[in-house]
């Protein structure tokens, strides 16, 4: 740049300029040259750096580099290069005008800080797209929460640096002063900090993941987890409504996660039917077997033979202690169909068969008539 400055001075003298026009034209030409150099660096980085980076990432078998070094990140990084060029050249142009030099240096430094922050935040956002086939993993959920906190931290640090640059102060001085306001910051980010801590407990203990079916006692939450952030867990209920709860509430309270059922070989059925005690009788003259006992064994065999019932899991038809409503019999088994609609259809078929089968054994299902 020093050579350019000298050549510009020689050029102005050669064309015969003199007086006050010389400094003016001198600065104008150097500014134009500086912006042309910055524009060329920006053009060259976009035309050369981005294609080379994209080709290098495509040559590798890993997918994470394609996601992290995407087009948006690379373009954002390229915008920093011309600003750095301007920042380096401005002191040489305005070396005789310290005030102008200082103002332009601050503005350029603020721009570099903003673009660097944007690039870093965009780069970190790419981690949310990594390992999309395993978004239920605890590591993925923890990484997502950590990236959320990291983005907030980077933005906060950038704001402090920008304020320091605008005021002409050392950023470390402002950071040191933040210690006195830490109590205020704790109050401002109280929900974020508590949510982050609760989110770590949820994911590190493998308690909750995106895609899980959960229910929360005492609330209307009964659906699929769609998103887990620092301060919220979004659940889409089966009526398509969206309910938002805090991770802190899930950690401090209790909730039911149905993922164990979803990943198991069957969904449990546990139904009770009450029989009128007066319909129970012996089926043989030797009084060795009752109709309810035969019914219980036959129903258990019937369940074992059905293809929609998992015979490898527990199948049990048991009699429970008698009540004033009769003798309860519980049917306990697991259906292979776990999807809600199919589950209810198969369950209805089985129970309808049991209701219709009971009278053939002389059993009467207890029925209490409502009061008129």
Overview of this protein structure:
With 372 residues, the protein is of the alpha+beta class. It has 14 helices and eight strands. The protein has helices spanning 2-14, 21-59, 64-68, 71-78, 80-93, 98-125, 138-167, 171-177, 182-188, 190-204, 247-252, 259-263, 291-305, 340-357; strands at 213-215, 222-228, 233-237, 242-245, 256-257, 267-275, 316-319, 327-335. The strands form two sheets. Strands 4-3-2-1-5 form a five-stranded antiparallel sheet. Strand 7 (316-319) and strand 8 (327-335) form a beta hairpin. Helix 2 runs antiparallel to helix 5 (80-93). The relative contact order is 0.06.
Series of secondary-structure elements, N-terminal to C-terminal: HHHHHHHHHHEEEEHEHEHEEH
Query: What does the largest sheet look like?
Result: 5 strands, antiparallel
> Kindly state the mean pLDDT as a whole number?
78
Low-confidence stretches: none
Share in helix: 55-70%
Helix and strand arrangement:
Layout: H1 2-14, H2 21-59, H3 64-68, H4 71-78, H5 80-93, H6 98-125, H7 138-167, H8 171-177, H9 182-188, H10 190-204, E1 213-215, E2 222-228, E3 233-237, E4 242-245, H11 247-252, E5 256-257, H12 259-263, E6 267-275, H13 291-305, E7 316-319, E8 327-335, H14 340-357
Helix pairs in contact: 1-2, 2-4, 2-5, 4-6, 5-6, 6-7, 7-8, 7-10
């Amino acid at each position: 740049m020093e050579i350019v400055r000298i050549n510009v001075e020689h050029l102005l003298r050669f064309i015969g300029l003199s007086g006050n026009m010389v400094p003016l034209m001198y600065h104008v030409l150097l500014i134009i040259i500086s912006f042309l150099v910055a524009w060329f660096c920006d053009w060259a980085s976009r035309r050369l750096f981005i294609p080379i980076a994209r080709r290098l990432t495509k040559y590798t078998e890993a997918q994470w580099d394609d996601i992290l070094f995407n087009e948006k990140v690379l373009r954002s990084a390229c915008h920093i290069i011309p600003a750095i060029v301007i920042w380096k050249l401005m002191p040489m142009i305005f070396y005789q005008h310290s005030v102008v030099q200082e103002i332009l240096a601050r503005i350029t430094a603020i721009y570099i800080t903003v673009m660097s922050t944007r690039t870093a935040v965009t780069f970190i956002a790419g981690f949310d797209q990594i390992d999309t086939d395993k978004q239920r993993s605890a590591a993925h959920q923890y990484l997502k929460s950590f990236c959320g906190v990291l983005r907030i931290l980077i933005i906060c640090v950038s704001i402090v640096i920008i304020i320091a640059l605008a005021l002409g102060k050392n950023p470390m001085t402002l950071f040191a002063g933040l210690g006195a306001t830490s109590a205020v910051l704790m109050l401002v980010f109280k929900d974020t900090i508590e949510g982050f801590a609760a989110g770590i407990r949820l994911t590190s203990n493998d308690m909750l993941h995106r895609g899980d079916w959960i229910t929360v006692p005492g609330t209307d939450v009964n659906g699929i987890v769609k998103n887990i952030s620092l301060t919220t867990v979004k659940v889409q209920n089966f009526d398509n409504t969206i309910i938002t709860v805090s991770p802190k509430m899930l950690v401090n309270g209790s909730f039911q996660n149905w993922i164990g059922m979803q990943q198991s070989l069957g969904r449990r059925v546990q139904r009770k039917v009450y029989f009128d005690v007066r319909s129970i009788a012996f089926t043989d003259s030797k009084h060795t077997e009752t109709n309810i006992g035969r019914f219980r064994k036959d129903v258990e065999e019937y369940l074992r033979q059905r293809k929609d019932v998992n015979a490898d899991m527990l199948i049990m038809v048991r009699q429970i202690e008698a009540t004033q409503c009769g003798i309860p019999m519980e049917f306990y088994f697991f259906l292979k169909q776990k999807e809600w609609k199919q589950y209810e259809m198969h369950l209805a078929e089985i129970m309808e068969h049991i209701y219709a089968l009971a009278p053939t054994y002389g059993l009467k299902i207890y029925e209490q008539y409502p009061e008129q």
